[in-house]
Design goal:
The complex is a heterodimer of chains A (899) and B (117). With 899 residues, chain A is of the alpha+beta class. Chain A contains 28 helices and 23 strands. In chain A, strand 1 and strand 2 form a beta hairpin. In chain A, helix 6 packs antiparallel against helix 13. The longest helix of chain A is centred in the middle third of the chain and has 39 residues. Chain A is elongated and about 145 Å long. Chain B is mainly alpha-helical and 117 residues long. Chain B has a three-stranded antiparallel beta sheet. The termini of chain B are far apart. The N terminus of chain B is likely disordered. The chains are: A alpha+beta (899), B mainly alpha (117). Chains A and B meet through helix 2, helix 4 and helix 14 of A and helix 2 and helix 3 of B.
């Protein structure tokens, strides 16, 4: 008998079938040809004729290969038995899995859309938050060896300032005595009135050590940095401009260096322009001049006003630097027992300082978006499980065709990863949009806000998150789908198989997890919302509506005498109060809710001077008489400051209730006297008489308890200069801004006005960080809630679909719609309650990490826990009620006819 | 041009009805490929004939769709042969194809005015 196999093999060659399959086909076809051949012989044909007849069967050889090509898959499609080409197959398989997956996804656009949207939201939120974390917490600061840069503070924990700005003499001692720092630099805030060319303008600047720029490792783009000799009195009339100011005010003049500039009425020479992105964390300075301590300033240990930067020597660690500073601070305490009592030193990494107090909020948010992604994963896994159940027939066929379990898992994982990749892609687009949204939300005090962007690290992060996501939500359905009984499935009505039940169990577990995680997030958000509401309802101690504020800083060169400045303000306030729409106006050294301000130490008459200890300090504001009525600060006792409290009349003070309570616990501070020096050294003119007591005002932050506070008259207290103007209006405050500005220029046409804001803006700015965390966590929790609701809906309606027959039967037997609803909703509710139990337990443990973000509520606030749980249960009930309603619409006859 | 057209039409027609033919033949009992091919030729009185090149791809296609299931069967003293049997899914498809074929034929008959069978 002829050997047909060779003939057949030749024709199949171009299909490149797996060897096993090819052999099988060849065997089958060869048998056919054998049969044909024998039949022909039996019919009386010669061997040659029979041979030809058999071969005719293959004549349309093209057709054979072509037709088989439609049906058979090239090698590698089926599991390789004989090995040999393993790696080749791996890639070819992958490619085919991808194509197959893509087709499967395209065929089911509804499923694909829901899954991709859920994943995109989860991944997008993660990428967006990560891009902020990356910029604010991870990305190195744009200086040379930024890891070695630290901030050094005075540690006045006893006085309530664990990170206090150092005094100049302490800074200089630190610098001289330490062995751990390569160098140190000091900065002091100072604003400059720029006059001469164009409108007078007030420009935020810094007095800095000449060592600052070399320490940071940043060079001016134009000109040079300060010379060491310029950092001394007499030689310090030089200025470096920011790139922005140079562009804005000087038209990017390339010949700016060497030119003179009038600042605060004195002439300075421009020596350099910084590069465009140069910025010191937390500072908005537009120009820098040398700090050049005078001998008096260099010896002062009482004025704490510097920010100190240091660069650790290579190999020195932060704890080592801290230890060294502790030693030095202890020595200084001994040498200066009065000024430095209880005064330590604290070293913090510059990047930590730059991240500011947003760090815990960002970490909590990063955790929260992680949870949102988990919920999204659970949802998609649920969708996939439901779909896998529907695809059991398809899987059965593939198994019957010889696909191995491993092969099926891989196929399913490919599909999941493809979904995750799609989700990641859309998520990345979402995060682009999210980042610009975040930039609007992040408190501007976070220095690197503007630099937040999607960089390579964020892309890698997104990629990894997407892959991980695909694995997480793909693994369960893949193993579940591949692990089933072929015969059961192939049998008619195999849908009640064990695998189905197991699938239901996994789906239920996923919903429980979703509910638990959502509850955790919701409780977190609930706590923040609760905190925020409490923060908003804190009585700041003053009115916040219809108040216009602006800064009017008088240059010392033009107004060297205290009397001149007083006269300016008296004239200005008279003019402003005469404006229509203005109720009253006042000036003050600092508005409330500003994180800095002056304090003075004082002694009380009739009490012994504290021997070696420091005198008590009190937050001191120097104000004009109408300050209290303008700000709406309530009087408890005595009288406000008045126009009669002039420079030549006895000095008076209004104090806050906390100060009254602390220093005159008997309740009668009025008429008592105090002095800002030692009692024994006080002359007759050094005494200040308490004439009034007002309610507390939140001076620094809304969530910080008020400290003792004292108000002095601007005419009597020459040591602090008012520079904030506040105007109480009967109309929309900003509408009066230009009129008030004009009033300033009527008094002095060269006087700049800056920072025009309403008190409401100041208030809202002061709680920007809290609003940021609350809004974002709220959004994420809401997202999780929606996803969980969709998950519950999915599971319940899937089970309703599965139980159509049972429900129909029940209704045929007389069950009422109410019974069916109760049954279905009850099933959903059971899952939700289990989820809530787990969620509450998790929240109880995990919300503690948020403690630092909360205000006025405990991390385990029972009210929040209960209300949020109820909200979630109600949403869950609604989500299972919809499919329950649908279940009651089941027509018993149709239900029974199914199958 | 017309040759290619009729060639393709012929093939498509054959393919369309061939599924029905094969499914019908394995409905009652499992059969191997040569058996199926011979039966088609026999029962159609030689009008319909599938050669190897067209029959087996069809079988594999049907198998891949899960309508029929092939299995190597060895009988004492014989070479092993691949027998195809109808799967439950195939049974449904067969029922559906049968009724639509019947409708199709009736429709054609009504149009072409041929006698009702």
């Amino acid at each position: 008998m002829p050997d047909w196999k060779q003939e057949i093999g030749r024709r199949l060659a171009r299909l490149r079938l797996p060897p096993v399959r090819e052999a099988e086909i060849a065997e089958e076809l060869a048998q056919h040809l054998d049969d044909r051949y024998e039949q022909s012989l039996r019919g009386g044909a010669t061997q040659e004729e029979a041979h030809r007849a058999a071969l005719l069967e293959l004549t349309e050889s093209d057709l054979l290969a072509q037709e088989l090509g439609h049906v058979e898959r090239p090698a590698g499609r089926e599991p390789v038995v004989f090995g040999g080409q393993r790696r080749m197959n791996l890639f070819r398989d992958l490619w085919q899995d991808l194509r197959y997956s893509l087709r499967a996804l395209v065929k089911n656009p509804g499923f694909t859309a829901v899954a991709v949207i859920a994943l995109a939201l989860g991944i997008g939120a993660n990428s967006a938050i990560f891009s902020v974390v990356n910029t604010v917490l991870l990305r190195p600061l744009p200086y040379r060896d930024p890891d070695r840069l630290v901030m050094v503070w005075e540690d006045d924990t006893k006085g309530g300032y664990p990170r206090d700005t150092p005094a100049a003499a302490n800074y200089i001692d630190w610098q001289d005595q330490n062995q751990v720092f390569e160098g140190m630099a000091a900065m002091a805030e100072e604003s400059f009135n720029l006059t001469g060319t164009g409108d007078p303008e007030r420009i935020e600047g810094r007095r800095v050590s000449a060592s600052l720029f070399p320490l940071l490792g940043v060079e001016p783009q134009l000109g040079r940095a300060f010379l060491p000799e310029e950092d001394g009195p007499g030689a310090n009339r030089v200025v470096i401009l920011s790139h922005g100011l140079w562009q804005r005010r000087f038209g990017s003049d390339p010949k700016i260096t060497g030119q003179p500039l009038t600042l605060n009425g004195e002439s300075y020479t421009v020596v350099g322009v910084m590069p465009p992105n140069f910025r010191f964390p937390g500072e908005e300075a537009e120009m820098w001049v040398p700090i050049a301590f005078s001998p008096e300033a260099a010896a002062n240990r009482g004025r704490h006003y510097l920010k100190v930067l240091a660069r650790m020597k290579p190999g020195v660690t932060l704890p080592q630097a801290q230890a060294e500073m502790n030693t030095i601070a202890a020595r200084l305490q001994q040498q200066h027992p009065n000024e430095n009592k209880d005064l330590g030193a604290a070293v913090t990494a510059l990047h930590e300082y730059a991240a500011g107090d947003i760090r815990p909020a960002l970490l909590v948010l990063l955790g929260a978006v992680g949870f949102v992604l988990l919920v999204a994963c659970a949802n998609v896994a649920n969708l996939l499980l439901a779909r896998a159940a529907a695809r059991q027939k398809e899987i059965a066929i593939r198994v019957a065709l010889g696909a191995s379990r491993f092969r099926l898992i891989r196929q399913f994982l490919t599909e999941s990863l493809l979904l995750a990749a799609l989700g990641g892609g859309v998520g990345l687009l979402l995060s682009l949009w999210g980042v610009s949204l975040l930039q609007a939300f992040i408190p501007q005090s976070i220095s690197q806000v503007k630099a937040v962007s999607i960089d390579g690290k964020v892309l890698v992060f997104t990629l990894l998150v997407s892959l991980l996501t695909g694995l997480v939500f793909g693994l369960a359905p893949a193993t579940q789908a591949s692990n089933f009984n072929l015969n059961e499935t192939l049998k008619e009505g195999g849908r009640d198989s064990a695998a189905g039940t197991r699938g239901n169990r996994i789906r239920s577990l996923l919903v429980v997890a979703e509910v638990a995680v959502s509850l955790l997030l919701l409780i977190g958000a609930g706590l923040l919302i609760n905190s925020f509401l409490r923060l908003r309802s804190v009585d700041p101690g003053f009115r916040t509506d219809k108040l216009l504020t602006m800064e009017v800083v008088l240059p010392e060169a033009k107004y060297p005498e205290h009397a001149q400045r007083s006269a300016f303000y008296t004239d200005l306030l008279r003019r402003v109060e005469a404006l229509p729409g203005v109720k009253s106006a006042a000036v003050t050294t600092n508005l409330p809710l500003y994180p800095q301000g002056n304090s003075i130490g004082f002694s009380v008459e009739g009490r012994p001077d504290p021997a070696t200890g420091r005198r008590p300090t009190v937050v001191t504001r120097v104000v004009s008489p109408h300050y209290f009525s303008t700000m709406g600060i309530q009087f408890l006792q005595g009288r406000p400051l008045s126009e009669q409290d002039r420079a030549d009349s006895p000095a008076v003070a209004v104090i806050s209730e906390t100060m009254a309570r602390k220093f005159w616990p008997d309740g009668d501070p009025l008429g008592k006297r105090l002095t800002p020096g030692k009692v024994e050294a006080a002359g007759p003119d050094d005494w200040i008489t308490v004439v009034g007591v007002v309610k507390d005002v939140r001076q620094f932050e809304l969530d910080a308890e008020p400290k003792p506070q004292m108000y002095l008259s601007y005419e009597q207290a020459g040591f602090f200069e008012p520079n904030d103007l506040v105007v109480s209006t009967s109309v929309e405050p900003l509408g009066l801004a230009s009129a008030v500005r004009k009033a300033v220029w009527e008094v002095d046409k060269d006087q700049p006005v800056s920072n025009v804001r309403t008190m409401e803006e100041i208030l809202s700015g002061s709680i920007a960080r809290q609003r940021f965390s609350m809004l974002l966590l709220g959004i994420f929790a809401g997202l999780a809630l929606v996803l969980a609701a969709v998950g519950i809906y999915g599971v319940v309606s899937y089970s309703v679909a599965q139980r159509t027959r049972e429900i129909g039967l029940r209704m045929a037997l007389g069950a009422q719609a109410g019974d069916v609803v109760k049954m279905v909703v009850g099933q959903g509710l059971k899952l939700v309650l289990v989820g809530v139990a787990f969620g509450l337990a998790a929240a109880f443990v995990l919300t503690r990490v948020m403690a630092s973000l909360l205000f006025g509520v405990s991390a385990t606030d029972p009210v929040t826990f209960i209300i949020i749980s109820l909200v979630l249960i109600i949403v869950a009930l609604l989500a299972s009620f919809i499919p329950a309603r649908k279940a009651t619409k089941v027509d018993p006859m149709i239900a029974l006819r199914v199958e | 041009m017309s040759y290619i057209g009729s060639h393709i039409l012929d093939r498509e027609l054959k393919k369309g009805s061939a599924e029905l033919l094969i499914l019908s033949l394995v409905e009652e009992q499992p059969r191997h490929g040569y058996d199926i091919g011979s039966l088609i030729e026999q029962r159609s009185g030689g009008v319909l004939r599938f050669n190897v090149a067209s029959l087996y791809p069809l079988l594999y296609r049907l198998e891949k769709r899960g309508w029929i299931e092939g299995r190597w069967v060895e009988k004492a003293g014989q070479r092993r042969r691949r027998y195809y049997r109808l799967t439950p899914a195939g049974r449904k498809v067969l029922a559906a194809q049968r009724s639509s074929w019947r409708e199709f034929v009736e429709a054609i008959n009504r149009i072409t005015g041929l006698e009702h069978a």
